């Protein structure tokens, strides 16, 4: 007689609460050791800590493990949260809703829904087929890449909670207003014909019935996928930031990225749009620019244009949008980013 037995579950799946508590304690203990460890490593090297090279090395040796540790923790938690907000559920939540409140809801859902530029086309098609209004769809498409867990984690780790919250509010504001404006322009005729002619489909989804252990596995999967993909950008961005931190003279950047140079904001947007990078690569550079005298509004405008208006995403969206709608999308979002930059340079 043959007896069939279920496969043995991993320890996190068998005792999820205990695992989460112990993991949080270990994470916090490790985080506390980062700065002393970086200083000890620099002190052990034949380098003067007060020199340009010493400053750059301390920046790199402290920020690299700090950012990777923060990112791993937040991506793990967001991976668990994302299991509640799959793209199918997000589409069902937005289907049939009118503009206005739906723009707010779409931009908010963009924060917790797994999304990247490479999934823009299938996600866009799914939204159109489910009857989600065009402007609401754009609120989601703007918010998801710009206000994601990677951007917010890096901002929190490098600038603190005030700047992270500021960016969260600004990103949501740009996504909500830009989506609403695009919706008011009634540009459905500028979808590609094959997209406009697709049959409508139901936006229903089936509940997955996932356990806490399953969601922990989802957190691990998110860490493998996201951190495994962005760590080279993080190392590259921190290395460049360390060079700026250690070698660029104090106040040098203030001469052309300071608040007195009114043209610095549009120039930052023009430079940022064609760049091919993401939050992981650009935020360490932003930290060094601010430390050397660049204005906050200018830096925010640069960062938002890099993340929200990347040229590769425009090329991908060309498969489903006509040129006039893409140009309108870029113009509306860029106008919002410019406004953010000018306002913050004037106020702060």
TrEMBL record:
<feature type="transmembrane region" description="Helical">
    <location>
        <begin position="230"/>
        <end position="249"/>
    </location>
</feature>
<keyword id="KW-0812">Transmembrane</keyword>
<feature type="transmembrane region" description="Helical">
    <location>
        <begin position="163"/>
        <end position="182"/>
    </location>
</feature>
<feature type="transmembrane region" description="Helical">
    <location>
        <begin position="106"/>
        <end position="128"/>
    </location>
</feature>
<feature type="transmembrane region" description="Helical">
    <location>
        <begin position="134"/>
        <end position="156"/>
    </location>
</feature>
<keyword id="KW-0472">Membrane</keyword>
<feature type="transmembrane region" description="Helical">
    <location>
        <begin position="289"/>
        <end position="311"/>
    </location>
</feature>
<feature type="transmembrane region" description="Helical">
    <location>
        <begin position="67"/>
        <end position="85"/>
    </location>
</feature>
<protein>
    <submittedName>
        <fullName>Permease</fullName>
    </submittedName>
</protein>
<dbReference type="InterPro" id="IPR005524">
    <property type="entry name" value="DUF318"/>
</dbReference>
<dbReference type="GO" id="GO:0005886">
    <property type="term" value="C:plasma membrane"/>
</dbReference>
<feature type="transmembrane region" description="Helical">
    <location>
        <begin position="323"/>
        <end position="344"/>
    </location>
</feature>
<dbReference type="Pfam" id="PF03773">
    <property type="entry name" value="ArsP_1"/>
</dbReference>
<feature type="transmembrane region" description="Helical">
    <location>
        <begin position="261"/>
        <end position="283"/>
    </location>
</feature>
<dbReference type="InterPro" id="IPR053166">
    <property type="entry name" value="UPF0718_permease"/>
</dbReference>
<keyword id="KW-1133">Transmembrane helix</keyword>
<keyword id="KW-1003">Cell membrane</keyword>
<comment type="similarity">
    <text>Belongs to the UPF0718 family.</text>
</comment>
